[in-house]
Amino acid sequence: MEQQLKQLEQEALAKIEAASNLKELNDVRVAYLGKKGPITDLLKGMGKLSPEERPKMGALVNTVRENVTNQLEARITILEEQAIQEQLEKESIDVTLPGRKIRTGNRHPLTRVIEEIEDLFLSMGYEIAEGPEVEKDYYNFEALNLPKGHPARDMQDTFYITEETLLRTHTSPVQARTMEAKKGEPIRIICPGKVFRRDNDDATHSHQFMQIEGLVIGENIRMSDLKGTLDALAKRMFGEEREIRLRPSFFPFTEPSVEVDVSCHKCGGTGCNVCKQTGWIEILGAGMVHPNVLEMAGYDSKKLSGFAFGIGAERIAMLKYGVDDIRHFYTNDIRFLSQFHRTEE
Ligand code: DAH
Questions:
Q1: What is the pLDDT of residues 22-56, one digit of tens each?
Q2: Cystine design at 238: which of 100, 135, 209, 265 (Cβ 3.0–4.6 Å)?
Q3: How many other CB atoms sit within 10 Å of the CB of residue 88?
Q4: For Mg(2+), which residues are the binding ones (predicted)?
Q5: Domain tally for the chain?
Q6: Is residue 306 within 6 Å of ligand 1 at its C-beta?
Q7: Residues 158 and 297 in one domain
Q8: Is 255 annotated as a binding residue?
C-alpha cells in the first residue's frame, strides 16, 4: 500500500507539472484528491489494516495529500501569473507611436476682420457700442434723416415685424441711439453688427451681412479728421502703402457724403482684375454727420460736428482674402474655413 501511495503521488505531481492551464490543473485535482479519486479509495481501505499499521498509513496518506495540494496551489499561482503577464503583453501600449492630432478650430474670417478693425479703433480711443438687430423704424430711418416716404428708403427694403419695427438695414441706427444716450456729450464709437436687407442672395449680395459703423462727435471735428482716420483704416487692413480717395456721394444722414476707395492691394494701382483695371477699390461710405441728425438727437449742430462711416465687413474680408462669393462666409464649409488657420497672430 505504501508503494501504491508513492506511485500515486509521483503520478499526480508529474501531471501537475505538465498541466498548461487552470482547467487541466482542476482536472488533476478532481482525479487525485476528489471523492472518487484513488487517495480517497485508499483511505476507505484503511479499515482492513491492522491497528498498528493504521496510524502510520494515515500519516502517510495525509502527507501525500498535503504534498499534492501544495504543488497544485503553487502551480495555480504560477499559471495565474503567467496569464496576467500574457494579457499585459497583449495590451501593452507603444508610447513611441505618434499621438492623434486634436483638430482645433480657428476664428471665422469675418470675426478676424471685425477684431482687427476693433483693435485699430480701440487703440485710437474709440469705444465699442451695440444696438438691437430688431430695430424701430424711427432709429433705422427717421432719426437718420430718412423720413417716411423718402426715396432713399427704397434702397434699403427690409423685413418688417410691424409697421414700426423691422430688422435693421444698417448699423447706422446705433449712431442715433448713442447720441440720444450721450445727451450732447462728445462721442467716439464703432459698432460692429448684423444687418438685414430684402435682397436676393447671389455672389455679392446676402439678405444678412455685417457692418461696422463709426461715429465721432466733438468740437471742431472736420472732414480732414475723417480722411486721416480712414487712411489709417485702409493702411491697417490692406497694407502701409495703400492710399485712399474720396468721391462725392449721397447719404441722407451725412453732408457732405463720400464714397471711399482704397488703392488696389493686388496691383498697387496699375490696374488688374481685382480693381477692374481702375487701380481703386470702393470700401465704404462716409461723411460729415448731417445737422438734422445731430439736432434730432439733441446735439447743437452750431457747437458740435462729427463724422460717420459704415464699412461692410464681408466686402473687406472678400478683398483682403480674395474670396469670390459672399455665401462662403455663411455655409460653414470646413474646407473654406480651415484656409484661415493662422497661428502667427
Ligand atoms: N449706412 C450706410 C449703408 O448701409 C453706410 C454708411 C454711409 C454709414 C455713410 C455711415 C455713413 O455712417 O456716414 O449703406
A1: 888 888 888 888 888 887 887 777 778 888 888 88
A2: 265
A3: 9
A4: 255
A5: 2
A6: no
A7: yes
A8: yes
